[in-house]
């Protein structure tokens, strides 16, 4: 009887699939309008957030991106609202997107936002119809799922922005 060859852990791990991670934050007002940002580098608006860096947790990514994009450093993240699997598209690898609750804002909070790095041109509290007009359909679906999670108090699992089940 021959003994099977043992593969070193490092070799096994090196062959595993890699997924990009993205983390965003859903800020909203009392009327469920959502904070969207107008980026300087693309046409579609986004929620605050971005791609995770090496060895960075999704919640650390969300916190870092909110500080970089909005200058907000004193608001803790709330509950995890959405986990969304995104298939490869637009030259990007498959990924997992996490959306955290940023809580409530009002118009006076918008005045205090600072866009220091030139990445963001403006911010707006948007009703769902406006979200669908300025964001990609995938993000608009993910935002709808996140708002549902806020209302129900339950994290929503999605694929391509749409709830599973």
Compose a concise summary of this entry.
With 165 residues, the chain is of the alpha/beta class. It contains 5 helices and 8 strands. It has a single domain (19-163), classed as Nucleoside Triphosphate Pyrophosphohydrolase (Alpha-Beta Complex), CATH 3.90.79.10.
Structure description:
This protein has 165 residues and is an alpha/beta fold. The chain has a single domain (19-163), classed as Nucleoside Triphosphate Pyrophosphohydrolase (Alpha-Beta Complex), CATH 3.90.79. It contains 5 helices and 8 strands. It has helices at 9-14, 58-70, 107-111, 128-134, 137-152, and strands at residues 20-28, 34-39, 49-51, 80-86, 95-104, 120-126, 156-159, 162-163. It has a 6-stranded mixed beta sheet, sandwiched between helices. The protein has a two-stranded antiparallel sheet with strand order 2-6. A hairpin with a 2-residue loop joins strand 7 and strand 8 (162-163). It starts with 8 loop residues before the first helix and ends with a strand.
List the SSEs and their pairings.
Blueprint: H1 9-14, E1 20-28, E2 34-39, E3 49-51, H2 58-70, E4 80-86, E5 95-104, H3 107-111, E6 120-126, H4 128-134, H5 137-152, E7 156-159, E8 162-163
Parallel strand pairs: 1-5, 4-7
Antiparallel strand pairs: 1-3, 2-6, 4-5, 7-8
């Amino acid at each position: 009887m021959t003994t099977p060859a043992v593969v070193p852990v490092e070799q096994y791990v090196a062959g595993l699939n890699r997924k990009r991670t993205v983390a965003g934050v859903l800020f909203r007002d009392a009327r469920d309008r959502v904070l969207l940002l107008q980026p300087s580098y693309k046409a579609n608006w986004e929620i605050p957030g971005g791609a995770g860096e090496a060895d960075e947790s999704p919640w650390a990514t969300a916190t870092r991106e909110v500080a970089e994009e909005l200058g907000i450093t004193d608001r803790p993240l709330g509950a995890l609202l959405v986990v969304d699997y995104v298939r490869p598209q637009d030259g990007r690898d498959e990924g997992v997107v996490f959306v955290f609750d940023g809580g409530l804002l009002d118009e006076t909070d918008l005045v205090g936002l600072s866009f220091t790095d030139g990445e963001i041109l403006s911010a707006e509290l948007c009703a769902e119809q406006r979200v669908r007009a300025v964001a990609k359909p995938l993000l608009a679906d993910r935002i709808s799922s996140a708002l549902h999670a806020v209302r129900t108090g339950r994290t929503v699992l999605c694929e391509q922005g749409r709830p599973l089940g």
